[in-house]
Amino acid sequence: MSAPGPAAELSIETKGLTKRFGQQLAVDDVDLAVPKGAVFGFLGPNGSGKTTTIRLLLGLAAATGGSMRVLGEEMPGKLHDVLPRVGALVEGPAFYPFLSGAANLRRMDAADPYGSASTRHARVQSALERVGLTHAADKKVRAYSLGMKQRLGIANALLGPRELLVLDEPTNGLDPQGTREVRSLVRSLAADGATVFVSSHLLAEVEQICTHAAIMSAGRLVAQGTLAELRGAGQAWIRVLTPDPGAAAHVLTGLGLAVILSPDGGAPPGGVRPGTPAGRDAVLVATRRADRQTAAPGEFAGAGEPVAPEAMVAALVAAGVRVRGFATEQASLEDRFVALTGEGFDVVQ
Amino acid sequence: MTGGLLASELGLLFRRRRTWAMLCALAAIPILIAVAVRVSSAVPAGRGPAFLDRITQNGLFVGVTAMVVSVPLFLPLTVGVVAGDTIAGEAGQGTLRYLLVAPAGRIRLLLVKYGGAAVFVVVAPLVVALAGAGIGAALFPVGPVTLLSGDRIGTGEALARLLLIAAYLALSLLGLSAIGLFISTLTDVPVGAMAATVVLSVVSQVLDALPQLDWLHPWLFSHYWLDFGDLLRQPVSWESFAANAVLQGGYVAVFGALAYGRFITKDVLS
Ligand SMILES: Nc1ncnc2c1ncn2[C@@H]1O[C@H](COP(=O)(O)OP(=O)(O)OP(=O)(O)O)[C@@H](O)[C@H]1O
Ligand SMILES: [Mg+2]
């Protein structure tokens, strides 16, 4: 975990945030720390409390316990100072079906006490342009497709200059083109210095756009950090298929790697499901040692210098080990996600 | 900047087809009355709604008669729809969360919503009065009016009295709007809030008709609804107007406070 900076450098900070619905803890003792300028992926299976957390952060619902700071201000006390600086998409878009897209945005902008009427038209136009809805601006929202509504919802979050964007499943219902556009939009917002807090259960999407992420499970925050930390940047390993496990283990240990002889081909914790070893060959899994977690991905730190995979193969071959298979593997976010939230299909209550 | 939001609210209200449908329905009441009177033979005095028998002599009475007819149900119905929809409609649609995140501010939004309902409350009786005066003038002679006190006033002043009655009805419905606003903060289902508001207006009138509940009558928000006859005397007697204003003010204060108390702490989960 990267050391959390002083409060001023966090865009969102919660301590022990809790929300109870009757018996159920929808959000349970959550300590979020979203650094300023981050693109923060907020992950979790259905019903894990993502949207509820977002509602608490935006002052839509009152927390049962805990404290929050958003953009450095105490919430919900400073709600009216903070919210004009925040753009949000919460649990899908919602609009007046009998108004056009542009009229809907004007309505929402009129609700913002800082949304100046003189610049309204221009801001609405540019927000529509950013999401590619200029041509549908005068169409009634009733006649919008799901993806068009989603785009309009994102446009609504972009009506003013925002320091923080809270986007709850922004790519829901979008076509591949729209998904790409949202990704590039998020990147451009981040490039402008905004913090983007984006909830999703699309891991691939989060891996592509986020710098940081947190994982929720059944209301609890089970992991949080930079993407590399979450994947376990150290969690890379090599897999060697050989009929000479003893000699191979000796060589690899000599290179400073921790070696597991894995008759069932088992991967390290959180690792990928292994394939079946061929014939009676043994599978050796060697991981970077815990004290050498700083090597760049693709390199395996030994006791001394980092060792490149090709050097390992050379060393094994030089020692007469019959190498029948050699692979370098790295945990993906999905492995981590499944390891933390469970694989079952049932929603955790 | 609340003016901007109020303007937007009114734009929203009066751009809805539903609002226009209700106003058209209200305008249809005097038209139906006038046409019915026109095509039928003379109405015997003392039968039908108050003032009905005077229509053939003076078209302006179409407006008065139509207002008498619409007070018990039609006006409360439309006001119930608008007031019940205020918060619950936004909540049911999901736009409430975006208004609050914008941030509209809960108090500001509540005030604007009540303001919108209040404007409708002014417009609705006005539509009845003007449609009545219009159709009355088209189908019947218009001229000086004999008041309940026996005095005669000119057409211009008669029109002013008609508008005064419309204003009286607007005032009368402010309390009901506040009740509707409060009920609207209790639910995310607008139809439920509308129905509850309309039902309450009927219940209040039923209670007002039971002599056994004499003591309760002055406290019922519908108690003075039909007491606008005082405005048809010379000089105008303002007694019921004042009593009504105090009563409605009380309802607005109480139910406004309840709506505030409820809405300010409400979890917006829709
Ligand atoms: N209004 C409510 N009343 C009672 N329980 C609720 C309410 N809203 C949410 N919950 C419960 O809180 C938990 C978290 O719900 P939430 O909507 O935050 O999940 P989520 O992570 O956003 O899920 P999804 O990925 O499906 O959007 C769920 O178990 C849900 O049943
Ligand atoms: Mg959700």
UniProtKB/TrEMBL annotation, chain A:
CDD domains xrefs: ABC_BcrA_bacitracin_resist (cd03268)
Keywords: ATP-binding, Nucleotide-binding, Transport
One Pfam assignment: ABC_tran
Domain ABC transporter: 12-243
SMART domains in the cross-refs: AAA (SM00382)
Gene Ontology MF, one: ATP binding
InterPro entries reported in the protein's UniProt record: AAA+_ATPase, ABC_transporter-like_ATP-bd, ABC_transporter-like_CS, P-loop_NTPase
Homology family: Belongs to the ABC transporter superfamily.
PANTHER family: ABC TRANSPORTER, ATP-BINDING PROTEIN (PTHR43335:SF4)
Name this polypeptide is given: ABC-2 type transport system ATP-binding protein
UniProt organism field: Arthrobacter oryzae
UniProtKB/TrEMBL annotation, chain B:
Descriptive protein name: ABC-2 type transport system permease protein
Keywords: Membrane, Transmembrane, Transmembrane helix
Span of the signal peptide: none
Pfam families with a match to the protein in the record: ABC2_membrane_4
Residue spans crossing the bilayer: 20-39, 60-83, 118-142, 162-182, 189-207, 241-260
Source organism per UniProt: Arthrobacter oryzae
PANTHER family noted in UniProt: INTEGRAL MEMBRANE PROTEIN-RELATED, MEMBRANE PROTEIN
